[in-house]
Design goal:
The chain has about 210 residues and is an alpha/beta fold. It has helices spanning about 15-25, 45-55, 65-70, 80-90, 110-120, 125-140, 165-175; strands spanning about 10, 30, 40-45, 95-100, 105-110, 145-150, 155-165, 180-190.
């Protein structure tokens, strides 16, 4: 996300919103109240729509950001994964998402360009985060239990975990790392801790590969 955000207040005038959009070469900006809580978003489309309304005999007083904004604003929180943010953008047809804290105060903005920039991470950076931060740190698996390799953003996991339930946890955790575009797992397990009525044990009691397409 970008932490320095161009923003407006409810009382920001039509001309000032136009100036901000033009000067910063952006398509929209969040509107905040006196507590910096996001109350809406105003875009170039909103400005054109407002002008059309006024041309048809709308209010005589000058328009403000509060008049033109789309509300409520579609926002995200900083801890949300990039794929989730991308899905929100696609679902609502927006180019940018205000990033808010737990009290809905504006702390940044995420644009489509920000999301795409994540996928420029190097394979080595991704490998280090998956192996050191996620598998060893968050999941607490012993060193060497899972071998991690990355090529063009696709993570391949090979190794043996103690419990069968740990295999999908490792795969899903790798998917959450920024810059990952695919995960392939070849993981075996020593102990089947899953319900055999739901997930039958492999023949011979030995581990079997787990794959994520």
């Amino acid at each position: 996300m970008t932490s320095e955000v161009v923003q407006a207040r409810r009382t920001t005038s039509f001309k000032e919103v136009v100036r901000l959009l033009d000067h910063h070469r952006i398509s929209g900006l969040p509107v905040v109240d006196d507590d910096d809580k996001v109350v809406g978003v105003v875009s170039g489309t909103d400005l054109v729509r407002e002008q059309a309304v006024r041309a048809g005999g709308g209010p005589d007083r000058p328009a403000t950001a509060g008049d033109m904004m789309t509300s409520p604003a579609i926002t995200i929180h900083p801890e949300q994964p990039v794929p989730d943010a991308a899905r929100v953008m696609e679902r609502h047809g927006v180019e940018r998402l205000p990033v808010v804290d737990e009290e809905d105060r504006l702390i940044g903005i995420a644009t489509r360009r920000d999301l795409l920039r994540v996928f420029l991470r190097t394979d080595e950076d991704i490998r280090a985060e998956v192996g050191d931060t996620v598998i060893a740190g968050e999941l607490g698996l012993p060193e060497g239990a899972v071998d991690v390799s990355v090529r063009d953003g696709v993570v391949t996991l090979r190794g043996c975990v103690e419990l069968r339930s740990q295999a999908p946890a490792v795969l899903h955790a790798a998917w959450r790392v920024e810059g990952v575009i695919g995960v392939v797992g070849f993981l075996t397990y020593r102990v089947d801790d899953c319900d055999p009525a739901v997930l039958p044990a492999p023949a011979g009691g030995r581990g079997t590969p787990a794959r994520v397409p």
